[in-house]
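hey so u asked for the seq, here:
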Amino acid sequence: MQQVMSKYLDLVYEFHPKIVGDNNAMSKIDQDYESLIQNPEFRFEKYPADEKSDFIKFKGTVNHIIGLGLQVDLFNGMLFLSGNTFPHRQRLSALGFRWFPKAFLWYYPLASWKKTQEITSRINSEKKEEVVS
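ran it, structure tokens below
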């Protein structure tokens, strides 16, 4: 799913009407994304419900932020926003983004990132238990 979301983001930057003004191409891209969600061959059942929910909400989230003039990156289960975000902070917060002051950027943790953090946390706690034993 991460690869599809990444490709969608690339296509949005290439064709979105708020950036280059191509309504027809963006409409087709959105239709293809929606048809993928509905396609039984995509096999959503093999993914947890929270990852499916992220995938479905991703298109809307990207379309809310794409015209703000911010840098948008998808990396390792996180959607990052950088640039002049200050005027948009209330909107970003309402969309579920979180401010990361040390890096001066906003992030949106997707379910796959949360899962990675849980696994890392579990491994670290097991290592601590081994040291104590």
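The mean pLDDT is 81. The longest strand covers residues 71-75.
lmk if thats what u needed
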